[in-house]
Amino acid sequence: MILGTASHVGKSILTAGLGRVFADAGYRVAPFKAQNMSLNSAATPDGGEIGRAQALQAEACRAVPCVEMNPVLLKPSTDTGAQVILLGKIWGQVTASDYHTRRVEQLFPEVLVAYKHLAARHDLMLLEGAGSPAEINLREHDIVNMRMAHAADAACLLVGDIDRGGVFASLLGTLELLEPEDRARIRGFVINKFRGDEALLRPGIATIERRLRLPCVGIVPFLRDLGLDEEDGVALEDRPSAARQWKDLQSGSARALRIGVIALPHIANFTDFDALALEPAVSPAYLERPSEIAAADLLILPGTKQTLDDLGWLEHRGFVRELRRLHGIGVPIIGICGGFQMLGVSIEDPQGIENQGEPASRTGLGLIPVRTILRREKTVRRVQGTLRRDFFGGGVPPESSFEGYEIHVGETFYNAGSCPLADIVRQGIPGSVPDGAVSASGRVLGTYVHGFFDNDDFRHSFIRAARAAVDLAPAAAWAHVAAEREARIDRLALHLRKSLDINLITSWIVDPSVKGRRITTAKPGTEATSHE
């Protein structure tokens, strides 16, 4: 089990990297996170919803993602409330107090069943904790850290992030706050995201090893430009803002295409824009004030967990007026999922899906003639699609096929004069259905599909059309993100092989099929080194 001294220390990425290390050694490996809190989610092939980090980890393990890998997913809707996804489906809406004092005890048996089913099909389980195991106010009802470690009889590796400072204090403090039976499960620690001269760090490592009476399993250097999915909302702090990204605005037709993503308070699946951010011909920024959007060539309204609340926020902050003004002068605008719903005429919530059971509705931006009604049933499917219309009136692109996934509770209806953007085929469901919409001018478009920009050829066609629409020269270079994804995961695994004592970690891992037997580091069919 990979634990952390705090959120965003690198647990998810290290779990993915170790998954690839052990998969390369010939083992059937699966990731598992009992409870995840995230607005970045993914669709499984059978139509379930799990945390995006577990989907990445499954990919790294060369396993098919399934709901058992993340049996409980919490999707925050307010500071004190969240939607609960149990085994891929909506279970209910809870307050933080109700969840931690009552509901976790209801859900933990389901978590254990999911773990046992998954473990029975794999040689090795890699569990990920959440936040810190030393959240002493939550320990009694914590089902994702030490209680799960005991249930799985897991050896634990503690990860500290040196990049944010205070790593030795956080390691020591975490261990000091653990109960003796919990501390006994910690076998070693890792210093993650290190930059600088390792020789200067070594005296501190020696001291903390003596204080903790635990070995340092490795010092993992900061890995730049990894280009793999971020899970934690804390990662948004590192995303480019307009103040940083567009501080010195370049001119000329060869400059980067400036894409502004509105930083909605409840933004969801912000990984939708990771591939765009890696393109050399694109300069994305997250926009927090209406005054920032005039510098953008193209604007995106992203997905959101609270569509009505965030639409109200846009109105209150003055974004709606500015978006309508820019639309009037032809600035391209795109909506993804909840952002697509906002672009329409209205959003109705007759069952109070987003409003604690109270009916609600809001007038949309009115930029495309569609209306949306929120429903209790959530659509969760992987999809493949083909454009019906071109991008921004520039002709149907040579690559008009895309793929991604739907995760939404709304049903959108087409008013007179509306035109769907694409036809999509949902995995496991025969036939196609229309998706999204395009304005009469072709300058405004929306889609329900997350991952819309992930396909390399399709994204390149989009960028060509977008640059032409704002009178910029064709891009001089391209990123091949999807094609390089496997290489990125392999690069992470190699980085960990060089940085961590993999033999030591392997020596902790017990083969569940034979009591007391240790998993070996060699691939099947080669000479094995056992760790008894």
Secondary-structure map:
Layout lengths: L1 E3 L6 H14 L4 E4 L2 E3 L3 E3 L5 E3 H9 L11 E5 L4 E6 L2 E7 H25 L3 E4 L18 H7 L3 E6 L5 H11 L2 H4 L2 E9 L3 H15 L3 E6 L20 H4 L11 E6 L4 E2 L5 H4 L4 E6 L10 E4 L1 E2 L2 H11 L1 H10 L4 E4 L1 H6 L2 E4 L10 E4 L6 E18 L13 E14 L7 E5 L6 E3 L1 E2 L5 E4 L8 H14 L11 H19 L2 H7 L24
Parallel strand pairs: 1-10, 2-9, 3-6, 10-11, 11-12, 13-15, 13-16, 16-18, 18-26, 19-21
Antiparallel strand pairs: 4-5, 6-7, 7-8, 14-17, 19-20, 21-22, 21-23, 23-24, 25-26
Helix pairs in contact: 1-2, 1-14, 5-7
Describe, in plain words, how this protein is organized in 3D.
- The protein has 532 residues and is an alpha/beta fold.
- The strands form 7 sheets. Strands 15-13-16-18-26-25 form a 6-stranded mixed beta sheet. Strands 19, 20, 21, 22, 23 and 24 form a 6-stranded mixed beta sheet that branches. A 4-stranded parallel beta sheet has the order 1-10-11-12, with helices on both faces.
- A hairpin with a 6-residue loop joins strand 23 and strand 24 (433-435).
- Helix 1 packs parallel to helix 2 (52-60), helix 1 packs across helix 14 and helix 5 (167-177) packs parallel to helix 7.
- The longest helix is centred in the first third of the chain and has 25 residues, at 96-120.
- It is globular.
- Residues 514-532 have low confidence and may be disordered.
